Amino acid sequence: MLDPRINEHARLLTDYCTNIRSGDNVLIHLGGAKYGGDEGLELAAEIYKRVAKIGANPIIVVFPSEAIRGFLQYAPEESLDRNPRGYYELMRMSEVVIGIGAESNTRFLEDVDPKRVSRYAKAFAPVIREQLKKRWIGTIHPTNAFAQDAEMCLDDFKNLVYSAMFRDWQTESARMVKLKRTMEASDRVRIIGDDTDLTFSISGRTALIDDGRQNNFPGGEVYTAPQEGSIFGKICFDLPALIYGREITGIQLTFRNGVVSDYSATKNSVFLGNLLHIDEGAGRLGEFGIGTNNGISHPTGSMLLNEKMTGTIHLGLGNAYEACGGLNRSAIHWDIVKTMNPGKVTMDERAILEDGRLLLE
Which end of the chain is more exposed for a tag (fewer CB within 10 A), N or C? Predict the structure, then answer.
């Protein structure tokens, strides 16, 4: 029997998040450039049916993790650098894109040469740029792999995910307006915590509210783009980063004049270095965000959930969102999350987040 929460999830994605209209071409993909997608077909099917009822034109594309792993292991060198033209054309012809993270194995690329993964990511950049032009949303479907990463049973993990999704988003949006206004009126941000003292400017940049209609669902963050050359100092991230089927833990980054000048990780440091050198913009900041979603009770293995959790901040390395006024360009954009308990975030010396508590509510 289908979990009724899957129906509600599909309804929110089609009606609230992307506002699908009759005649829209809708691309539904499981997995993609960064992830494999072996599960989540139940959710994809419910989205497909809802899109059809609206009078739009849906298509489902699946990227099984073992297929991506096989491609990266066995493809000729020249194939790694080639734009995936067929998928690019699907993306180009779509008005709406719904991406579903639904991995059965979140570490499926642990044994693949990180240089090959980096080349694959760079070749995928035109697809990602095209997606950013669409009405697009990325979401998560609960799987055993995600639950294991969160050190939870599947039922409890489902409850956490749907608690984060099924909220009064009008009220949530109103809560975030105050933070948005504070960000847009501020110049100097300082992040202080364990092994962390980082400063940068957000002067003149637009702050955006993610209330489930800005890139991710569940939503729950306010984010902007730092001034490109203004980032100085050091930050240590206590939560792991899962990207391209690998887990990177113990990430420490040092910035000088807006560029990562030194880095380390306790696990997959070489892979981290490859990501930072994919192109000139990969070692620069494209985003600074603060999580606001009270429905996420504790960190999980999911970046999408962790960055939305109240009491966290995240920095996005690589491509900046043009809507924020960011100028950095890169083939990648990947977020790294830090819990701020203990810790403090100030804007123009005013405390905004302290020891995990937002002070603007």
Answer: N
Range of the domain at 329: 169-358
Residue 149 lies inside a defined structural domain of this protein: no
3-state secondary structure of 329: coil
What's the whole-number mean pLDDT along residues 248-261? Answer: 96
The angle that helices 114-123 and 65-74 make with each other, rounded to 10 degrees, is 110
Provide CB contacts within 8 A for 152, sequence distance 6+: 160, 300
What is the Cα–Cα distance from 133 to 148, expressed in whole angstroms? Answer: 34
Together in a domain, 326 and 181: yes
The pLDDT assigned to 152 comes to 96
Contact 220, 321 (CB under 8 A): no
342 prior amide bond cis, ω within 30: yes
For residue 75, give the 3-state DSSP assignment: coil
Say if residues 98 and 139 touch (Cβ distance below 8 Å): yes
Helix, strand, coil share of the chain (percent; to 5): 30, 30, 40
Mean pLDDT of 262-273: 95
Residues 180 and 306 grouped into a single domain: yes
pLDDT at residue 254 in the model? 98
3-state secondary structure of 131: helix
Is residue 119 within 8 A of residue 76, CB to CB? The reply is: no
* Cα torsion through 281, 282, 286, 288, rounded to 10: -150
- The dihedrals phi and psi of 90, each to the nearest 5 degrees, come to -60, -45
Quick one: DSSP state of residue 13? I
**Token pair of 194 as six digits:** 């364990």
CB-based contact 18:96 (threshold 8 Å)? yes
Q: What is the pLDDT of residues 42-76, one digit of tens each?
A: 999 999 999 999 999 999 999 898 889 999 999 99
In a domain, 158, yes or no: no
